[in-house]
TrEMBL record:
The chain crosses the membrane at residues 273-298. This is NADP-dependent oxidoreductase domain-containing protein. InterPro entries: AKR (IPR020471), NAD(P)_OxRdtase_dom_sf (IPR036812), NADP_OxRdtase_dom (IPR023210). GO terms for molecular function: oxidoreductase activity.
Amino acid sequence: MQAQHAATVKTLADLHMPRMIYGTAWKKERTAELVEQAVLAGFRGIDTACQPKHYREDLVGVALLKLQQAHSIPRSELFIQTKFTPIAGQDRSQSLPYDPAAPLPEQVRQSFATSQRNLHTQHIDSLVLHSPLPSHSQSMEVWRAFEELADAGQVGQLGISNIYDLQALQAIFEQARVKPAVVQNRFHATTGYDAGIRAWCRKQGVTYQSFWTLTANPDALKSAAVRAAAKQRGCEPEQVWYRFVIQLGCVPLNGTSSSRHAAADLDVLGWEAAAAAAAVAAAAAAAAAAAAAAMLLLTWRFWAGQGGQAWSQQEMTEIRPLTREKLYNV
């Protein structure tokens, strides 16, 4: 099953994945209500995880049933993505989705079975490794179990999240028989918007999913350039920023709890490229400035700690265009 929706991107696994996905982390007891609201607003992709610490995957399943029964929206119209979370990311004080003493492949199978029960579906469109394990060999052990699920037709595509070491990502990709189709990482200025990982993903045909897309970028959203572009277009700064991220080739996760914002954010998928050009350029300028400012701050902290001196404003000005060039070098 996979979502059939106009605003999609074709992934390495030959699936049509929505260009914006609803994120369900930290929704707690409101998860079912908010997932239903998001889908009724137009979302067709849902991201969750088999991680009780931060997700109520079971309540995502409740929403899926209600959408079918009360709104005639079948499972086949939705793109469901969930995650296997290694034990380091679980809260042992809560009920775990697998036996932590079991071998890693069995942990994957048990977690996947839990996801199937929670989500009331036998097929998962996208299964993501929530984070790399302590060693490469352990990550590959989990990946082989993922591949078995893909071979059995139970999973449409595979992915990995929270991987910021390009060499580690390359090693998994090179050794994987079923290649990662998506990488899901934080998107914010202090990491240069993950430009190196995104560039590699584009070359390999891997789709980059961004999270913390709004919450980690308050300076860009408040920037004069983004606000002016939003005013000119008659929209919100958040819409300008989302359009910019999509223009970079990313699939952003969106966790809004507002039905109005959900509809407005999805609206950016229909903006024509020419009409959106000014907004995207403004967001790019804000992103470059934020990245440069973050670089300056990190450098100042380093040199201050070493008894050195921070970069001057002139030096800061000189690195801005370099940062912008790097941002677009994807």
